[in-house]
């Protein structure tokens, strides 16, 4: 809060402007987004506006210059407003913060008030912006886990232990150096940022912050806060300040109990806050104020996600007025106070981090601005087990998108040893033998105390709905279970009748630093380990449990969350309107895609590969969901490969039906015509790709009236003159065996002849089996060298006839006859 002061003018200006000043002054009050970034977090900013005054002909020229940057980026934006104003001698306006209240007029969230002080304290001690944000949430969560009767010494010890577990050894020195008194004082709301949110003046803040809270081992921390605040309130003179500070302890107690009961009601998106200011005219002259309109307030004065929805103003004892869209001039008599209340609807807030929203009012020249802001604390969920003071949350099994499952009954989580003979280290062996624990603990039976939810350290551990799918395992360092390089396989097993798939994650023990043991978790099914990241390999930490009852065993707790997805997320089937067809027919194919996942599916991509000789009839493609036609985009990537795209959404159990026609050409291959289809789609909850297929349909393609099958004929004969052709007197050889390329076996008849009908067109190979006619051998061919082989290659035209002959000679054949002048043939081995 800063006072509005009369501008001090140089002496040489005074004489020239005195006669031009009027009785009253018009002072411009504007709202300006602050520009010198002092970020509380990367998405919060506070800035300052540079003002300069220039007195011209009895009026004052006000220039607002703003320079903004975001998250240390070098981009600059500047803007300026110039408004001629006059200042009457003796006028002085002071802007005071009256605090922020809820729409009902009640005090805003007490946790939101104290979070500002905690945030400033952690940053001042050396935490980064992000670390301070997480430390505040962890501090509030730890405080809420303790009973309402916990002493301040217990509270501060638990908070520091929780911070050590959260940030590890890297920040251990910084955490140990944190001031106990400073943290406890911030928790009580007795720090400058918290008091500024309540609307305290600088003088009031100076009075309150002289008090500090120190750790005590007796009496509850809640009672200690009430006692300290009661003594501070007596030193305040303003009734409003006394009332607000007095209400803070009770509000804190209520909100902490709400967190314990799981019914926390923090300020959230849609909440309406009222930022209240007072404009006090402490001068001797009445002053006219130009109030900004709602649009100006939203665009120039609002910091953070929100929207100004209304502005009211008025004088004490009078009815409040509503500010119009065009702004309004208001005359403040000397010694009077104008109250200004701006209603702001909170915009979208973060789920796991503190966000901020504020309003800045600025008027006149010099240091005369006023800023009110409040931190919005997200919902905090804690483990309500009073015996649990370890890691929270523990390992948890959730759905594909990180959501809680509707029913955990029948699910189990188990730790297995790794089969040492498996080079991939992905095959589970026997269950890991874990040390038995108990809860509650009997100190006289030498059984160490356990932790929730797996109080007996059972392996496997069966999940329950009460624990919302959480599990825990305690390793025993005395058994070497935390040795460097040791491997385990964590198996999440769904019930037998479940639609979910099993998860297997390999855990590899890493380096140890103090009480922290690193491990590497690797997904063995190729899916991301959790919905928070697409990584299939993550690095985590196992924290040694600091407990006197376990210290001899050096037990350590494992905390690893794993997502489990549907075993079958999508299915595709393919059918047709007939089982057999002929060339020239048109076949209607039907593809059905069903969503089997627990999440809606979208962005369907179907690929269909048609048989040879089949072609798509493009105008026949239709798609349908729930009896409603959907648009199908068709793309041909080749003559036989068709892609269908459907930009539609299927809820669980719904189906997309796609129908199209394909025409069969005369050159289609006869016999079994097979085509296959696959589908890809995208889950809405985690954007992962799901797929199924191929779905295969086989159709018997018959010849019909168009026949292209041919006939193969041939003979095996005794070739006396070795010309490869059968002449008169060259007999056929019966019972000779010929093998075709498809394995078919053919035997010649009594004349050495053979034939095969209904053969598909194309190249065919036949081989003469000489062992079937041992008294014969292959006859040499004196005309064509390529025929000196026991195999023959022929090309059968569609519907044609082709001949395949084999010439043989007796193994005890006579010498080759000499050629006479008429029948003599000169061998030409080059042919």
Rounded to an integer, what's the Rg over CA atoms? 44 Å
Secondary structure tally, helices: 11
Number of strands: 46
Q: Sheet bearing the most strands, described?
A: 9 strands, antiparallel
Q: Beta fraction of the residues? A: 35-45%
Overall 3D shape: elongated
Helix- and strand-based class? alpha+beta
- Percent helix: 10-25%
Outline the low-pLDDT stretches. Answer: 1-90, 383-393, 813-831
- N-to-C span: 112 Å
The residue-averaged pLDDT reads: 76
Which properties best describe this structure?
9-stranded antiparallel β-sheet, 831 residues
Write up this protein.
- The chain has 831 residues and is α+β, with helices and mostly antiparallel strands.
- Helix content is 15%, strand content 37%.
- The strands form nine sheets. Strands 16, 17, 18, 20, 21, 22, 23, 24 and 25 form a nine-stranded antiparallel sheet that branches.
- The longest helix has 23 residues, at 239-261.
- The protein is elongated and about 145 Å long.
Task: Give a topology summary.
Blueprint: H1 11-17, E1 25-30, E2 50-56, E3 59-68, E4 77-85, E5 93-102, H2 110-124, H3 129-145, H4 152-167, H5 172-176, H6 180-187, H7 192-197, H8 202-208, H9 221-233, H10 239-261, E6 272-281, E7 287-291, H11 294-301, E8 302-303, E9 306-314, E10 321-322, E11 328-332, E12 337-346, E13 355-363, E14 369-376, E15 395-398, E16 412-418, E17 428-431, E18 461-462, E19 470-471, E20 473-476, E21 487-493, E22 503-513, E23 516-523, E24 537-544, E25 555-558, E26 562-563, E27 570-576, E28 580-581, E29 586-595, E30 601-609, E31 614-625, E32 628-630, E33 633-636, E34 641-650, E35 655-664, E36 671-683, E37 689-701, E38 710-718, E39 737-740, E40 745-747, E41 753-759, E42 762-769, E43 776-778, E44 791-796, E45 801-803, E46 806-810
Parallel strand pairs: 1-7, 15-26, 28-37, 38-45, 38-46
Antiparallel strand pairs: 1-13, 2-3, 3-4, 5-6, 6-12, 7-11, 8-13, 9-10, 9-12, 13-14, 15-19, 16-17, 16-18, 16-21, 20-25, 21-22, 22-23, 23-24, 24-25, 27-29, 29-35, 30-34, 30-36, 31-32, 31-35, 33-34, 36-37, 38-41, 39-40, 39-42, 42-44, 43-46
């Amino acid at each position: 809060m800063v006072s509005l002061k009369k501008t001090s003018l140089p002496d040489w200006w005074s004489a020239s402007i005195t006669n031009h000043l009027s009785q009253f002054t018009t002072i411009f009050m504007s709202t300006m987004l602050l520009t010198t970034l002092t970020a509380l977090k990367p998405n919060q900013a506070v800035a300052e506006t540079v003002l300069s005054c220039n007195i011209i002909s009895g009026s004052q020229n006000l220039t607002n210059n703003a320079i903004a940057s975001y998250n240390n980026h070098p981009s600059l934006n500047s803007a300026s407003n110039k408004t001629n104003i006059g200042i009457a001698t003796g006028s002085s306006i002071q802007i005071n913060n009256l605090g922020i209240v809820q729409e009902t007029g009640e005090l805003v969230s007490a946790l939101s008030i104290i979070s500002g002080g905690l945030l400033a304290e952690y940053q001042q001690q050396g935490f980064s912006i992000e670390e301070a944000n997480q430390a505040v949430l962890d501090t509030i969560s730890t405080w809420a886990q303790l009973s309402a009767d916990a002493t301040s010494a217990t509270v501060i010890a638990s908070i520091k232990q929780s911070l050590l577990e959260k940030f590890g050894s890297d920040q251990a020195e910084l955490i140990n150096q944190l001031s106990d008194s400073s943290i406890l004082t911030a928790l009580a709301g007795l720090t400058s940022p918290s008091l500024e949110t309540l609307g305290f003046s600088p003088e009031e803040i100076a009075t309150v912050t002289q008090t500090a809270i120190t750790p005590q081992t007796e009496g509850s921390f809640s009672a200690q806060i009430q006692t300290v605040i009661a003594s501070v309130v007596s030193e305040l003179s303003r009734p409003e300040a006394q009332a607000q500070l007095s209400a803070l302890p009770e509000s804190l107690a209520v909100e902490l109990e709400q967190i314990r009961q799981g019914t926390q009601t923090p300020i959230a998106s849609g909440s309406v806050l009222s930022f209240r200011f007072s404009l006090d005219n402490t001068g001797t002259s009445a002053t006219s104020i130009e109030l900004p309109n709602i649009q100006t307030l939203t665009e120039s004065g609002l910091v953070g996600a929100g929207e100004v929805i209304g502005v009211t103003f008025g004088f004490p004892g009078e009815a409040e007025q509503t500010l119009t869209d065009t702004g309004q001039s208001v005359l403040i008599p000397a010694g009077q106070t104008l109250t200004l209340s701006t209603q702001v609807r909170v915009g979208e807030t973060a789920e796991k981090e503190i966000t901020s929203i504020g309003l800045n009012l600025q008027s006149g020249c010099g240091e005369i601005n006023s800023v009110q802001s409040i931190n919005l604390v997200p919902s905090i969920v804690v483990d309500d087990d009073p015996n649990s003071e370890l890691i929270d949350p523990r390992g948890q099994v959730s759905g594909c998108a990180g959501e809680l499952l509707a029913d955990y009954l029948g699910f189990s989580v188990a730790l297995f040893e790794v089969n040492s003979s498996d080079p991939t280290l992905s095959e589970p062996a026997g269950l890991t033998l874990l040390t038995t624990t108990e809860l509650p603990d009997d100190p006289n039976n030498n059984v160490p105390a356990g932790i929730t939810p797996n109080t007996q350290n059972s392996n496997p551990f069966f999940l329950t709905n009460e624990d919302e799918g959480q599990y825990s395992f305690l390793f025993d360092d005395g058994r070497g279970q935390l040795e460097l390089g040791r491997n385990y396989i964590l198996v999440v097993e769904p019930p037998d009748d479940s639609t979910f798939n099993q998860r297997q994650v390999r855990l590899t023990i890493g380096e140890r630093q103090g009480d922290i043991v690193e491990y590497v978790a690797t997904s063995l099914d190729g899916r991301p380990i959790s919905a928070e990241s697409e990584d299939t390999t993550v690095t985590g930490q196992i924290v040694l449990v600091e407990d006197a009852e376990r210290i001899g065993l050096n037990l350590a707790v494992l905390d690893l969350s794993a997502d489990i997805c549907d075993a079958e997320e999508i299915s595709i089937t393919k059918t047709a309107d007939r089982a057999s067809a002929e060339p020239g027919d048109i076949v209607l194919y039907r593809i059905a895609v069903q969503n089997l996942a627990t999440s809606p599916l979208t962005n369907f991509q179907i690929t269909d590969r048609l048989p040879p000789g089949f072609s798509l009839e493009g105008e026949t493609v239709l798609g349908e969901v729930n009896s409603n036609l959907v648009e199908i985009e068709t793309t041909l990537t080749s003559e036989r490969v068709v892609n269908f795209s459907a930009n539609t959404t299927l809820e669980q159990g719904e189906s997309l039906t796609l129908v199209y026609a394909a025409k069969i050409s005369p050159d289609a291959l006869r016999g079994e015509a097979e085509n296959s289809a696959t589908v890809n789609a995208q889950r809405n909850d985690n954007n992962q790709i799901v797929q199924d297929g191929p779905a295969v349909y086989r159709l018997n393609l018959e010849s019909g009236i168009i026949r292209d099958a041919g006939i193969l004929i041939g003979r095996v004969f005794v070739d006396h003159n070795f010309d490869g052709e059968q002449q008169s007197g060259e007999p056929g050889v019966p019972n000779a065996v010929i093998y075709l390329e498809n394995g078919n076996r053919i035997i010649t008849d009594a004349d050495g002849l053979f034939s095969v009908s209904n053969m598909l067109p194309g190249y065919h190979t036949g081989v003469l089996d000489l062992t079937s006619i041992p008294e014969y051998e292959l006859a040499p061919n004196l005309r064509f060298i390529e025929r000196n082989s026991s195999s023959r290659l022929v090309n059968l035209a569609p519907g044609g006839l082709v001949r395949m002959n084999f010439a043989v000679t007796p193994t005890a054949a006579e010498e080759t006859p000499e050629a006479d002048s008429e029948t003599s043939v000169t061998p030409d081995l080059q042919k």
